[in-house]
Design brief:
alpha/beta, 5-stranded parallel sheet, globular
């Protein structure tokens, strides 16, 4: 059965290593017959959460007038969410963290979603990437019935394009096929 897949690419570089892995995941998912949309967060205006409390317990929608509401709506509507980030100082990049913080307005509606995580870093060690994965898992811990389906570690990739030819490219494609 075809799934609705949303890929959130938070690389500040179009065509960067994590963005390329997103494209490989998307190629596999499209071949498998899924409906896929990729959002390049750099192209969206998403402000920081101000902690105003308007959205707590669904009281009111977030008062900020930016692109976060649209992206969060797509997350709510998706069956599968792919969250991709380059690793900065062993954590998520600011674009992804900002979106996660803004999810406060709708996270209670993100029930039963499947999640895949894509990480890229100059670091060679996969175990060193676990603290970044834990940031994603912290988000999932706040959701109802999330299912983590896979993690793609694009290690040893610093300059844009370094990921080409690395095993992570085929792993991303294969995960997309199985999504």
């Amino acid at each position: 059965m075809a799934k609705k897949i949303l890929i959130l690419s938070s690389s500040p570089r179009r065509g960067g290593n994590s963005d390329r892995l997103c494209d490989r995941f998307m190629a596999g998912a499209l071949e498998a017959g899924h409906e896929v949309e990729k959002i390049f967060l750099k192209d969206r205006k998403i402000g920081y959460c101000t902690g105003c409390g308007a959205c707590y317990n669904g009281a009111k929608p977030c008062p900020q007038k930016d692109d976060a509401a649209e992206v969060l709506g797509k997350m709510v509507a998706a069956d599968v969410i792919v969250m991709a980030t380059p690793v900065y100082f062993y954590t998520l990049c600011a674009q992804m963290k900002t979106l996660i913080d803004r999810a406060c307005a709708r996270y209670l509606e993100m029930t039963g979603k499947e999640f895949y995580f894509i990480l890229t870093a100059a670091e060679q060690s996969v175990p060193m990437m676990e603290r970044t994965v834990e940031c994603f898992r912290g988000f999932l811990d706040c959701l109802e019935e999330p299912r983590e389906k896979g993690v793609i570690y694009g290690v040893g990739a610093w300059q844009a394009g370094d990921i080409e030819g690395m095993p992570a490219m085929e792993e991303a494609y294969a995960m997309g096929l199985r999504a």
